[in-house]
Structure to design on (724 residues):
């Protein structure tokens, strides 16, 4: 069989393609972006005309995926963990509608917040929705899971969550490819009411979901991705979820682990296997990347039953990602400490690139706001969030996609003047338009900057849905034409830009300023391609 | 046979092309490989690293545990020091001595030198200068790969093949420049190890 060298993200994407995928829907977000990018580069996807263009946001992606599943085809939906918050409405309800063609919701979690606002654990969503979830321990499982998960999805007519952490998303390893399956034929759901969640039908669908929970548990108990490995020393049993299994095994390269191990990659948790461990072991150590969801379930609120160790009792840190050293410490194994980092080593945080158009925009905003002091600029999610860093110190908030506009509206309503919102073109397409409609409707006294660098830069230059349409969209939403101003963020235009920003600041109503200049990396990429 | 390597630098300096070429040579030699990268926000001028592990046996963790790295390859001197907790007692540091200064509190030249001098096993060279002399400062990475090559335990011809594969689409002149840079780096390390 063919052997490929793939990132965890790419392994999942290739696995889905080889499992008869017909469409991938998603919005870019670290660490999940490379899933769809792999499909965009794939010859098999080209040959089969597999859909793989980016969507406006995670909610539209989830719904488009569900629509493809409705039509009987196999589909994946991709996003980062906080994207699942955006897609939570359709995801939660998809537990009741269920699926027709196999559907996998692939979510990249980011424990330790390498590139995110929080480290929420997507397994909670699967439990909340009562849907099955899978998390690979290595790249080979990331490749193997789609074939299995599509079958599971089609057997129970339910979406399956695929959860993968940053370290696996962005780590490359050899993957053995298996046979390529054909795509599904187009077919409608057998029950014409399946996707119709009027209360009377929804209640029946919910009852059905409750009834099949025991079957899903049984699937987990018999899953090839969950396994019980016996050990002689029963003073401790180790439950190891997802990637933590690698960190555990790293500590047992020379010798076999003396304790029984339960490796979990499929949820709901396999009840019988856990009962077996609880029966034969004195204590249980739970290793899980992200939040202590399994640990909390086993421990119970009062913790008066089983002795369960993990992130909640301090055996492992409560926050941040795991590694082999932390696991060794939890098992009281010896490990090397390594040298200290010399004191002279300074932190090197990311910064706006030299030549970046956002630099010129922030310099102009700073000059206009000098008389008003700090605290007037609401930021958003993208490269321009780095405007928080010195020497700019230009923005004051970063919460979620689209929140710049709406926070500015709220603060202006409270009486703050000036109130500026700063949002990127792709983020505006993701979640900014509805906020702008609010602003227009409320006649808010805000200035909204839509930083148009013609790409989704932070995640590596993906297209976005509003490319070339920003002014039209703003006008359509109701912003007055004379208060939509396009400026060029360049040093030699600084004075002119400052004047325009001042004019719009002094207009009592909604103004949109569009600083438009291509991302320098996109510019360089296009130049290189021309050569 | 097992090697754990940390590649260090600043986002945008291109440490990943070094990783790609070593990865090519590893796979072509029929060994197991795991290589973890940093994508996302840090790539914008922040500190970045890649953990590269290869072995004749299957590899478990994608990350190298503390005190286990055989080699730190750094394309920037301060970044070499950031990963010392991962270096094994007998490990080697192969570093470019040319600083990349994009922060205010960057250490002085003397401070950096004093710390690098404390390392028992190191190859330190101004790879930017060497690459410039070879024809283009952008070949700095290949100088560093060359300087690391005597410590990798991989066949040189497989590394050279990797260079040809990675740079091939940019034309023969670029391939030749990078091979030249690689060989100068290699010679320097052979003479100074």
């Amino acid at each position: 069989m063919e052997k490929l060298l793939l990132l965890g993200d790419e392994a999942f994407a290739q696995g889905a393609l080889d499992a008869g995928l017909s469409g991938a829907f998603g919005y870019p977000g670290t660490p999940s972006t490379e899933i769809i990018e792999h499909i965009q580069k794939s010859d098999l996807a080209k040959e089969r005309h597999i859909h793989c263009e980016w969507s406006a946001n995670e909610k539209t992606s989830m719904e488009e995926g569900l629509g493809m599943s409705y039509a009987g085809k196999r589909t994946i939906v991709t996003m980062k963990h906080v994207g699942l918050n955006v897609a939570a409405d359709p995801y939660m309800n998809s537990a009741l509608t269920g699926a027709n063609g196999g559907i996998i919701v692939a979510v990249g979690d980011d424990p330790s917040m390498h590139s995110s606002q929080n480290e929420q654990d997507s397994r909670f969503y699967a439990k909340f929705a009562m849907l099955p979830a899978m998390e690979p321990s290595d790249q080979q499982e990331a490749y193997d899971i789609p074939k299995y998960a599509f079958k599971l999805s089609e057997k129970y007519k339910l979406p399956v969550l695929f959860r993968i952490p940053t370290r696996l998303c962005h780590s490359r390893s050899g993957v053995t490819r298996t046979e390529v399956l054909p795509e599904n034929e187009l077919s409608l759901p057998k029950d014409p009411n399946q996707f119709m969640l009027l209360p009377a039908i929804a209640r029946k669908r919910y009852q059905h979901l409750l009834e099949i929970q025991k079957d899903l548990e049984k699937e987990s108990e018999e899953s090839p991705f969950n396994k019980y490995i016996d050990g002689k020393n029963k003073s401790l049993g180790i439950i190891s979820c997802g990637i933590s299994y690698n960190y555990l095994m790293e500590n047992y390269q020379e010798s076999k682990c003396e304790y029984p191990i339960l490796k979990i990659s499929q949820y709901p948790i396999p009840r019988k296997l856990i009962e077996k461990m609880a029966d034969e072991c004195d204590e249980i150590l739970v290793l899980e990347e992200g939040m202590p969801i399994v640990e909390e379930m086993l421990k119970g609120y009062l913790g008066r039953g089983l002795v369960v160790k993990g992130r909640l009792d301090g055996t492992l840190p409560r926050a941040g990602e795991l590694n082999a050293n932390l696991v060794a410490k939890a098992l009281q194994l010896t490990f090397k400490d390594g040298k200290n980092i010399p004191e002279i080593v300074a932190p090197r945080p990311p910064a706006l690139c030299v030549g970046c158009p956002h630099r010129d925009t922030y310099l102009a905003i700073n000059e206009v706001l000098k008389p008003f002091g700090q605290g007037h600029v609401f930021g958003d999610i993208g490269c321009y969030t780095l405007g928080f860093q010195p020497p700019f110190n230009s923005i004051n908030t970063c919460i979620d996609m689209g929140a710049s506009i709406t926070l500015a509206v709220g603060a202006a309503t409270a009486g703050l003047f000036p109130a500026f919102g700063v949002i990127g073109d792709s983020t505006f397409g993701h979640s900014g338009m509805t906020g702008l409609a609010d602003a227009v409707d409320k006649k808010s006294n805000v200035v909204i900057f839509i930083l148009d660098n013609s790409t989704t830069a932070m995640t590596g230059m993906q297209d976005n849905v509003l490319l070339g349409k920003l002014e039209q969209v703003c006008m359509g939403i109701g912003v007055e034409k004379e208060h939509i101003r396009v400026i060029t963020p360049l040093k030699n235009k600084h004075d002119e830009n400052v004047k325009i920003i001042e004019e719009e600041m002094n207009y009592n109503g909604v103004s949109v300023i569009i600083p438009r200049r291509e991302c320098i990396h996109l510019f360089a990429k296009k130049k290189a391609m021309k050569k | 046979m097992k090697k754990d390597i940390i590649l260090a630098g600043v986002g945008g300096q291109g440490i990943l092309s070094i990783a790609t070429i070593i990865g090519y040579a590893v796979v072509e030699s029929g060994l197991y490989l795991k290589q973890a990268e940093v994508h996302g926000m840090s790539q914008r001028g922040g500190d970045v690293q890649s953990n590269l592990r290869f072995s004749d046996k299957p590899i478990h963790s994608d990350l190298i545990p503390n005190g286990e790295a055989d080699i730190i390859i750094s394309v920037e001197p301060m970044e070499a020091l950031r990963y010392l907790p991962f270096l094994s007692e007998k490990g080697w540091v192969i570093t470019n001595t040319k600083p990349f200064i994009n922060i205010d509190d960057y250490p002085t030249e003397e401070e950096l030198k004093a710390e690098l001098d404390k390392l028992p096993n190191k190859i330190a060279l101004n790879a930017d200068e060497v690459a410039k002399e070879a024809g283009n400062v952008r070949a700095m990475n290949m100088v560093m790969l060359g300087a690391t090559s005597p410590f990798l335990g991989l066949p040189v011809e497989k590394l050279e093949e990797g260079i040809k594969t990675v740079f091939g689409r940019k034309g023969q002149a670029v391939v030749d420049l990078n091979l030249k840079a690689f060989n100068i780096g290699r010679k320097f390390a052979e003479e100074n190890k």
Summary: The longest helix of chain A spans residues 139-156. Chain A has three domains: 3-211, 227-330, 357-525. Chain A has 21 helices and 18 strands. The longest strand of chain A covers residues 74-80.
